[in-house]
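Changelog note: in this version the structure field was regenerated for every chain. One regenerated record is shown below for reference.
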Amino acid sequence: MIALLTPTCARAAAALLLCFLGVLNAGCVYEDQTLTLVKPRLEIDQQIAEDFARLFDTPGELQIELIDNPDPEQPGLHAVKMGLADLALVPNTEAYDPRVATVVPLYPTVLHIAYRFQGDEPPDQDLIAGLTENTVYAGPAGSPSRLLLETAARRDGVDPESINYVSETDACADIVVLYAAVLPDLSGRIEGCGEYRLYSLAEPEEIGTGSALDSVTLLNPNLKPFVIPADTYGRLTPEPVVTLAVDKLLVAGAEVPEAVVYDLLSEILRLKPALSATHPGLFHQLTDDFDISGAAFVMHPGALAYVQRDEPGIYERYSGIAEVVVTLMIGLVSGIYAIFKIYTIRQKNRIDAFCQRALDLRDDCVAGGKNAAATIEALKALQDEAYDLMIHERLAADESFRIFVTLSNDLIADLSGVPRSAST
């Protein structure tokens, strides 16, 4: 009667149920949802993430909870891959992984190369060659700034193992290499360590002229030239500084529901003025028509739906709940049917017992235990008992019952000496 539904049938049934629910509850809204965001490893990024999550702290609406990295030795992206977190802030230099999808490019992070300034002029030396002679801070192991520095070192014949890293910026490193957002207070993080200057990779007018900087961006399309204007960091930038920038992506696990990501992106763009007020100039590139053709990860279906203004319908928003309800309904109906079948089998078994008793009466008569007249009366009493149970619905008037009636009538006819055709 009821068979197990295929996934397609289950989804169709869920859609029908949701249509019914939508009619009854047209004013319903999406259930409260809390997404977990992995705390970045760099202190600068941590502050941005905390401010970002704080803006979502509104009861009854979509919320973001900042959590510590479950594995501090791994980047936050690893937690998303493993399903231990919903969101992470990652640079657009990570390797593609199908378990991760892009929600939106949030802001650019810029390569800052600061060197200790001594005397009236900066030392005329090769910055890469000086890595083995000076202390270097380049963020934690595995960070984009350290990976980029080690790649450049290998290209110039410098063994990355020979770089004299220090673990904290307050160690007053001679060279600081850091991918970070352009924040006004960034220069304050190395105050008290002496005079520093930001290293420029080229002159501003050399951008787009086929310089070495252009070759870097050509071979690494996720990188783009970036000019830090003069006086952005006070004495660190007396002149414009040409460097590289890479987008900081907000990524989500591929399993995060489409409707949730749609609502998340909608809320981010709604909160853009608040984000910009918290960090002026940081989120100015955040728009609702962003292009992620150069992103490291595919676009999340929820983000794509928002960009195309294809708002999730009631099925997408409540599909999980509906499919559970449909599954429960299927289980309930299947259970009722199973009970019905058990009840029917028990009724049939009782009819089988009546048939067996009728045959036993015949055998007893043949063996001489009773005469024919007494056996006929016993068979008629057995029929009356069966009819009484049928009237009170304790026996089913089905094919099995008809077989018993035919059998008992045939036995009565045989014992009476009446042809069976005449008895029926």
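Spot check on this record: The beta strands are 34-38, 63-67, 87-91, 100-116, 135-137, 164-165, 175-180, 196-198, 224-228, 241-253. The CA atoms of residues 326 and 332 lie 10 Å apart.
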